[in-house]
Amino acid sequence: MDDGKLLNLVLLCIPLSLVSFGGGQSIVAGLQHQVVDVHNFLTAREFTDFYAISRAAPGPGTLILALIGWHIGGLTGAIVATVAIFLPSSLLVCILGSIWNRHRHTAWAMAAERGLAPVAVGLIFAGVFAVASSAGVGVIEIATIAIAVSLLMFTKIGPYPILGAVGASFFLLNLAGIA
């Protein structure tokens, strides 16, 4: 285990934890930049693979940090990274939660909530673009995304049939040498 890398991961997780408005998805862009471009903990492909695994697994999206920690320092690394991403924001919520609830209906609190919503959405979209660029998304993938979003928004088709159809389609495209 490389203690220097693990310490850098902890120091990376703490600020990301404190700005994870909108959940774990909102820190993906910053996380990808730091672990791939700045610290070279992972390659872009490894990050994309870890992201896919963390999204397929039950639980919060920030569990990608457990995978990154495992990659850096085994079980100890996974535990340290998980604690480093969850503890700071959890403490912040516990400390500020009661204060926030007392002032929830004040003008400043409502303005803060309205202001943080677009920040969360922006951070989530930044994460989408970071993962897409790491995955090398091309024309076929963009068309697939557009079709899937359209089906989800404008039909009553659920995500699982769409996921199955896309998986089967890409399997066939791969067999044909197209994708």
- The overall average pLDDT, rounded, is 88
Distance between the termini: 38 Å
Spatial extent as radius of gyration: 19 Å
The helicity comes to over 70%
Query: What fraction strand?
Result: under 5%
Largest sheet: none
The topology string of helices and strands comes to: HHHHHHH
Q: How many domain regions?
A: 1
Shape: globular
Q: Uncertain spans, ≥5 residues at pLDDT below 50?
A: none
Give a count of the beta strands, DSSP E runs of length 2 or more: 0
Class per helix and strand makeup: mainly alpha
By DSSP (H or I, 4+ residues per run), the number of helices equals 7
Question: What layout of secondary structure does this protein have?
Answer:
Layout: H1 3-18, H2 28-38, H3 44-56, H4 64-102, H5 107-135, H6 139-154, H7 159-175
Helix pairs in contact: 1-2, 1-4, 2-5, 3-5, 6-7
